[in-house]
Amino acid sequence: MGAEQSVPAGVEVQPAAPATAAPSNQPDGAQAEASSSQQGPPTPSALVLVGPSGVGKGTLAKRLLDGAPDRFGFSVSHTTRPPRPNEQHGVHYYYTTKEQFAKEIGEGKFLEYAEVHGNLYGTSVAAVREVLETGRVCILDIDVQGARAMRKSGLQGIYVFIAPPSLEDLANRLAGRGTETVEQITRRLHNAKQEIESINEKGLYDYLLINDDLDEALKRLTAIAGRAALGLGPEPGMVPERVVLEDAPLPDIRALTEQQQQQQAAAAAASSADGAAPASQPVEAAPAQAAPAPESSHAPEAAAPAASAAPQANGAVVSAASAAADQQGMEGVPPGFEKWQGKVALVTGASSGIGWATCEALALAGMRVVAVARRKDRLEELQRHMHAMGVPLVNFLPVVCDITKEAEVATLPKIVAKRWPESGVDVLINNAGMSRNDASLFEGNIGSWVEMLSTNVLGTCMMTRAVVQDMKRRNSYGHIINMIGLSGHRIPDGPQGGGFYCATKSAVKTITEGLRQEARGAKLPLRVSGISPGVVETEFFAVRAFGDADATRKATSAFKCLQPVDVADAVMWCLSCPDHMEVNDIVVRPTEQLI
Ligand SMILES: Nc1nc2c(ncn2[C@@H]2O[C@H](COP(=O)(O)OP(=O)(O)O)[C@@H](O)[C@H]2O)c(=O)[nH]1
Ligand SMILES: Nc1ncnc2c1ncn2[C@@H]1O[C@H](COP(=O)(O)OP(=O)(O)O)[C@@H](O)[C@H]1O
């Protein structure tokens, strides 16, 4: 069902085009090349984006808006659908009830409204006016019915239909977004076919834009939006005379899910056939290259295809974030943490211990998690663990990367952007760190010194640099947490040769404070924290003893030590603090630990 209204008084729209206007994609029906013949500054018009759910309208609109907020504004619609975890009232939509929506229809509040995929959506007069009055192009993201109604209402603008390269791609994107259940995705795909048919309605759209490569699509849309900014009409002939739809059956989202499960099982079988690498001998990542290494050699994508969806027990695809939103006060989501739901956290040293526990806590609380480690088999195991915990694999990205290799670190933001094009790393947990027991200052193994310096100090710095550069590029600053360790504060085993390791950790402490000061100096809202745990029961001791599995037991049997999850809890608390509060260092010991 769709509805349209005549333009309510007070909205400044351009002279109404009659509902029966000649198709504007025909030369004689094109809007006048308005401002070229007018005096004064151009009058920006609307840019109406239409296309099936999951095609990338929101992503493209956000990129346009972020790129030039002074030229473009978004018409925030009203909807009766519940907010997704990373959506904000007044930013993505005004969320309302059916009753209120009905009341406001009666009051003539909407330029148009429609029922789409079972929910009501509407464009209010105020939403469009607010943007146009500031002299910016008003971007609308509306459905086909809304576009028809807008054409009739006379809102002058450029109407762009955004199509997917194929229904298969669309299905993958919808599944990859992880915000809908299997049933909801199936319904959206079913509707997509009809929506795509609307390309053939003469005069409805001015442009057909296929969103295949996101950057290419953005380039084309930016050019089209530029015309809207100048108040120019569309170029003629930008929609083909007739679009013939491939007669392909609708992709079956449940089958896609099953396919993904099979891929996972195959990957698991392959990894056990290879034989697991011993803990101290990580699977080698692709050799570092001057140019970024191929991404496929880093991310074990076979086990987690970019657009995969993990089934829940009930067969639904629900992101941990939406599950968290559904169950308020859910265990594992500290108060204040909601702001991170749907955002991306990158954790180094994710293959065991604190890194593993932190990945789990972040993912269960609704973050997208990039788990970085050298050991591919351990990452695959973590992935299976995440799956078993009910974390949708679309929210999990394992990356085999050696943080001491500059070229590998440099590829990480690109790998993240490839998986989640509209995102980047919002939270960095610099957890990877190691020690060796042959590093005395009298007669230490220089190789062990180099290893500790490279991992604990340079690795932390290179990761920080890569992520901060990416945050700068996106103009979006989050939180960096460094695992300092109690050894950054004192030397517990100096006589036994532990001084060098502690020196690297006290460097991390200083670097954490230096980073904080740099952020303040640059007036960036980046927050920086350190966490300094005492003895934690992890593989740390086995690595220190060059793979002696018994070393951990020996080092942790004197008293009840901290558990990785205790430290993950500290990470969660750091992140949950209000924006005005920056936790700089948390020192935490097992109760019985003396020094
Ligand atoms: N007619 C109309 N459609 C809208 C409006 N706001 C959003 N829509 C459309 O409603 C559909 C569902 O939107 P949404 O729930 O955000 O899901 P998504 O498109 O899958 O992200 C999309 O086709 C939107 O373009 C509106 O104000 N009016
Ligand atoms: N060209 C593209 N290639 C791959 N993925 C894309 C592309 N454009 C968008 N996406 C992804 O597809 C998903 C759906 O995009 P979204 O903007 O939410 O769609 P819509 O607003 O049209 O429903 C998102 O996860 C987005 O990152």
Automatic annotation (TrEMBL):
Q: Which GO terms describe its molecular function?
A: ATP binding; GMP kinase activity; oxidoreductase activity, acting on the CH-OH group of donors, NAD or NADP as acceptor
Please name the source species: Chlamydomonas schloesseri
Q: Which UniProt keywords apply?
A: ATP-binding, Kinase, Nucleotide-binding, Oxidoreductase, Transferase
- Biased composition, class Polar residues, residue ranges: 22-40
Q: Which PANTHER family match?
A: GUANYLATE KINASE, GUANYLATE KINASE-RELATED
| Taxonomy, superkingdom | Eukaryota
| One Pfam family recorded for the sequence | adh_short
List the protein's name: Guanylate kinase 1
**Where do the Guanylate kinase-like domain residues begin and end?**
44-226
Biased-composition ranges, Low complexity, are: 259-308
The EC category is transferase
Q: Which GO terms describe its cellular component?
A: cytosol
For region Disordered, the annotated ranges are: 1-52, 257-308
The EC number(s) this enzyme carries: 2.7.4.8
What reaction does this enzyme carry out catalytically? GMP + ATP = GDP + ADP
